[in-house]
Design a protein that fits this description.
The protein is an alpha/beta fold and 281 residues long.
Amino acid sequence: MRVLVAEKCGFCHGVRNAISVAEKILAAEDEVYSLGPIIHNKDVVDRLAKSGLKTVGDVQDIPSGTVLIRSHGAAPAQIARLKEKGLNIVDATCVLVKSVQHIAAELENDGYKVVVIGEEDHPEIRAVVGCARDVVVIADESDLDKLPKNARLGVVCQTTQNPEFVGRMLGAIGRGSFSELKVINTLCKEAIKRQESAAQLCKEVEIMFVLGGLESANTRRLAELCRGVNSQTFHLQNWAELDESVLWGKKTAGVTAGASTPDWIIDEFVKNLEVYEQSGG
């Protein structure tokens, strides 16, 4: 089987930095916690757990030691609670996510009603929401009735959202009632490059594989985008999840991966696809 890999895929700078920070801390300290999974990739989280990283869901679950703020960031109230407990805090928040947090706070200080286009339950969005007193999260058009009438709206978006989706939502917001609309583009350029690269590759292959955590928002978005171009698209966390029957009769396969998918997952998957051809697949 001929295997093509998307030009842009795998770890982004923010994720690579978070993993690097975690590895350095684990090498130097015995008691290290992560407030939520450091990234949305089970294989990486499991590997770091073997090195001693303890993942917890709440500040109250951290008795002492060092706490790592994951790439998705944390709300100011959580940071304050960590400081009150006297914990050593190491911030591995993605710089772009940190920027969105600052922008949300500034918009509110300037008198805007802060609006975030994104997934309300995603940790990045929860952290951004925590940076202002009253934020409206818009996941789709059904949420538009949450917006106040004739207000000054300041809009940002989840960094890994699809540009076309954000454009549609801005159009829908723009058709509503407001006195002023200020939009700050907080989309991640690296995520956009991955989306564009994946969409192009889908056109060149018979079957497409999107590798990454099932809870990874940017990976799910890649998979949705790819399915819109090539119906033979499969979102898998790793090679172990592949049902090889989907390969029958296929001669060309494309591979891309989310921003939280490590190189070794991608490399293993590609090599196994190539071996599959040699075994008569």
